[in-house]
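Sanity check

After download, print the first record. It should look like this:
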Amino acid sequence: MNRKRYIIRISFLLILVFFPLNINAFIPDPGFDGDGIFKHHNAAGGNGDDRSYGIVIDASGRYLITGQSDNSGGNYDMVLWRINPGGSLDTTFNSKGWVTHHNAAGGGTYDMGSAVAVDSTGRIVVAGGSIGTGWDMAVWRFNPDGAFDTNFGTNGGWVTHNNAGGGNSHDIGYDVAIDTNGRIFIAGYSDGGATDDMALWCFASNGTLDTNFGTNKGWVTHHNAAGGNANDQGYAVAIDTIGRILVAGESGRAGNNYDMTIWRYNPDGSLDTTFSNKGWVTHHNAAGAFNNDVAEDIFIDANDKILTTGYSDGSGTDKDMVIWRFNPDGSRDLTFNSNNGWIVHHNAAGGVGYDRGYGITVNSDGKVLVSGTSLGTGGMFDGEMVIWRYNANGTLDTTFSNKGWIVNDCSSAGTGNSGQDIITDSSGKILVAGMSAQSLGTFDMVIWKFYIPPTSPGSGTAVTASHTQIDLTWDDVSFETSYTLYRNLSNDTNTCSSVAGLPADTTDYSDKGLKPANTYYYWIKAYNAQGSTAFSSIGLATTLQDPADSFTIRTVELTPNPFNPYRNLYGYITFFNMPDDVRITVYDVLNNKLRELSQPDSDHRIVWDVKDKEGKDLPRGVYILHLEDGNGKSRIMKLVIQR
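Expected structure tokens:
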């Protein structure tokens, strides 16, 4: 997704790509190519620039990246790389790990890939452009082994198109999305004559234009969304849950400036007029300068909210990174960032002149991630790759490297770094595709991979449940794969012991089998493949006193005493307040052992039928009861039987 204006607006590119190692709590994953950063150059053999603009993950967890590479003729070719999860080139892909192509449109000069997607059968679709007489929109499709899919189009694996806007000049594809029917949508722009038009192409899965889309052509164009009758360009495309197609980009307004613009189309190619009551929405002045606002990428979250990132001109020549969020009907989501619907940020790398978002995604717990660039203190030649992370409500997530963003400069020249696209993998690791300067004006393709340590549970509770049980709860965290619960009889983690290992997303546990009337301290750690959090305190609780402990042989009572079976309707004696471990031995005055009684019921009672061990009624007289508990304590009681 996204990757913009690197062809036609070359001067603009020189600003964004010249971008020092700032190690934060979130560091590049050392399990990825040894240091978390994969670089490659010279894919097309020209030993010049290699740049990546789009990244996607296939069903096997491998990373597919597209971009461009200088060839030996002084031009550049489209490139598609495939990288293993560990950060090595996948040499099963075209026997070396990448494939290049040039001359798709027949001009023999420039070809570039701007975005990549994978269809339901594992085939890889690349969108971009190729020089014919001018720039043509180009789409390539590859089989999973890296060979061209010769069933796609009539050229042997690629198709091109020009003149969608009628101006017969430049047509460029910037982003690609595939719907559930296998249709391929390319967003970009086409020369409309006096100005550029936003263009959206639709191809059937065989590579032919889908003439059921739009007005029987297979594409639609639009201009003048912001009312300035100037250029309209689309830079990103996404498909929502009911098949509507959204394009994000820019549209010129009066005064030669641009508004951020989102268009929405129905699956048949007609503008969806339920979207902001016309089919598109614009916004400007996010950073307050009333100049340019541009959307570079788009994402639809699990609640069908529409997020887009890009930049807005601030004061002077400054640019601020922006995130806008819209409701499904096209209205700004005023719950995002305190009734604004957008947020801006600048100075991520310590400079004051330039922050720009290029890629946006939302991870599994609703956090919003943006990749881009920010100038450092060295000025326009001191640029760093940036990842920002925001909470779902639009506030900076300060648990992310303790401030809400991270910067990284992996440039061997100490100059330019740019994060052009961002995704997360199934374990929550962050991947950014972009470029980094190996010398002034010469770039390597770069993939950054950041691991996400689990966050610590923020709070917990320990509640006494009984004399042998304490119930524990805690907040779930992000990116954990398991928890371990710890316990101690003192507030000391150095001597605590583990109680239980628990799976991810667990938020409660009942600790059973404890000793009565003891105070227990609890902690928890969250784990993932990168390690664990520190001990996070849940709290302490004291088990109840065992109910049996409140009864001793001194509390035992028996009734009736004296016992007269003719006056006692029930014909038995009851011992009350019995400890669980008591044993009663009944003797006559000659010290003959007549009966043993034990095992009180749950109400701490023993009911005796006043018979001996042979089941015979005891005659009238005086009897001696010897009580003894498990600790060896004893007591003598006297019983009188009257007959």
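If your output differs, re-run the checksum step. Summary of this record's structure: Residues 2-24 have pLDDT under 50 and may be disordered.
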